[in-house]
Specification:
By secondary structure, the chain is α+β, with helices and mostly antiparallel strands. It has helices at residues 5-14, 17-37, 45-62, 69-88, 190-207, 214-234, 250-270, 275-304, 312-328, 335-353; strands at residues 94-99, 103-108, 114-131, 134-147, 150-155, 160-162, 165-173, 179-186. It has 2 domains: 5-90 and 189-364, no CATH class; 94-186, Tick-borne Encephalitis virus Glycoprotein, domain 1 (Sandwich), CATH 2.60.98. The protein contains 10 helices and 8 strands. The strands form 2 sheets. The protein has a 4-stranded antiparallel beta sheet with strand order 1-8-7-6, with helices on one face. The protein has a 4-stranded antiparallel beta sheet with strand order 2-3-4-5, with no helix packed on it. Strand 2 and strand 3 form a beta hairpin. The longest helix is centred in the last third of the chain and has 30 residues, at 275-304. It is globular and about 70 Å long.
Length: 371
């Protein structure tokens, strides 16, 4: 019994709430820096060490928790991080420009290095579909391909698959000679990442199983969610919606975020009267934010071939979620601590929702559709 005591103490220390808040706080800091100024923190040695330490910490914590939201979220995050790290070395996106009736098997990376594809691909036809009320706004564009003699089609949000490669419609030009730009992504560890995302989705649903006062709060949440949604939708021109937004992921992805935003807004008010209830509201909102991020990741992988592109809006969404987790890791704390985390979450939410458009990093964002 005595020999096991030091191990138990170390294990308890590694699973302590304050250490979890410290690791989450470091993640918030690094993601906020990159999300604000587009400084590639994720490519730094410090961030690599942080991810490795986080994975080791998750391994220890998983052994101490039973099946539940915490267990599923920890295992899911570990799978996502492991799949991302293991697949990073072999996952080299490359592009090819093909004119109609032209064939090729060599693609190029961003640094102009050549990649020999294990197949030959030809462009039989390129098609651009325009909106009826605006013949200059593309509704969809697609390439009709022939790969090793097999007919295939790729378009925005619907990549072709062949020999472990996903082939994306990345761009085109119909003015200076009709050609299509194709993007090729080979990611053998994508299944592990998706398995982790599935476990995180289970954790998100478990986080939603709360019992706060529905009679009073639910109508307020619904009202605020509707207002948030109307405000967001009013800024979108559905008459000339860009092709990447024409996806069935659009509505549930937006919906999860809008309801989460509404719950956080209510939590800000509630925290001044009932800190415990505010914490429970943040718990529910964290599940919705997580679902929204997972949907966005799957959608991004279908559209761009990358489930996480370190985009400013993605980074700030992660910052918001991690601040929620920090609030959930506060145990037996006074009202002021919970209030502080709730207010910080609300500020991060505002930056994620619309403030990111005014940050220095906005010029590099794929989410500034209005510009």
């Amino acid at each position: 019994m005595r020999s096991s005591t030091p191990y138990n103490k170390v294990s308890q220390w590694l699973c302590s709430p304050w250490l979890s808040r410290l690791m989450l706080g470091l993640g918030v800091l690094m993601l906020a820096i990159e999300g604000t100024w587009s400084i590639p923190v994720h490519a730094s040695t410090a961030f690599g060490v942080y991810i490795i330490l986080l994975m080791l910490l998750l391994c220890v914590q998983i052994s101490r928790f039973r099946f539940g939201a915490v267990w599923f979220s920890h295992v899911g995050m570990l799978l996502v991080l492991a799949g991302s790290l293991l697949g990073a070395s072999g996952r080299i996106p490359c592009r090819m420009k093909l004119f109609v009736n032209e064939a090729g098997s060599i693609a190029y990376t961003e640094d102009k290095s050549t990649v020999q594809l294990p197949f030959t691909i030809a462009l039989d036809k390129f098609e651009t579909e325009y909106y009826e009320n605006d013949q200059e706004a593309p509704k969809q564009f697609r390439s009709y391909l022939k790969i090793d003699g097999k007919q295939m089609t790729t378009e925005v949000n619907a990549p072709a698959r062949y020999m472990g490669y996903s082939i994306y419609q990345d761009g085109y030009d119909t003015l200076n000679g009709q050609y299509s730009i194709l993007k090729f992504v080979h990611d053998p560890w994508l299944l592990a990442v998706y398995a982790g995302m599935a476990l995180l989705a289970v954790a998100a649903f478990l986080l939603l199983l709360n019992h706060w006062n529905l009679k009073v709060i639910l109508p307020v949440v619904i009202l605020i969610a509707v207002l948030f949604t109307l405000f967001s939708v009013a800024r979108i021109n559905f008459q000339t919606l860009m092709p990447v937004l024409r996806s069935w992921w659009f509505v549930p992805h937006l919906g999860m975020y809008m309801i989460a935003y509404a719950i956080v807004s209510v939590a800000v008010i509630v925290t001044f009267f009932n800190a415990s209830l505010a914490r429970e509201l943040i718990r529910s909102a964290s599940g919705l934010i997580l679902l929204g991020m997972l949907m966005g990741s799957v959608w991004a992988n279908q559209a761009w071939g990358d489930y996480w592109g370190w985009d400013p809006k993605e980074n700030w969404a992660a910052v918001t979620w991690m601040l929620m987790l920090m609030c959930m890791h506060v145990r037996d704390a006074g009202r002021w601590k919970i209030t502080m985390y709730v207010l910080l979450t609300f500020v991060a939410l505002q930056i994620t929702w619309y403030g990111v458009n005014y940050l220095p990093s906005a010029v590099n964002s794929l989410h500034t559709y209005n510009s």
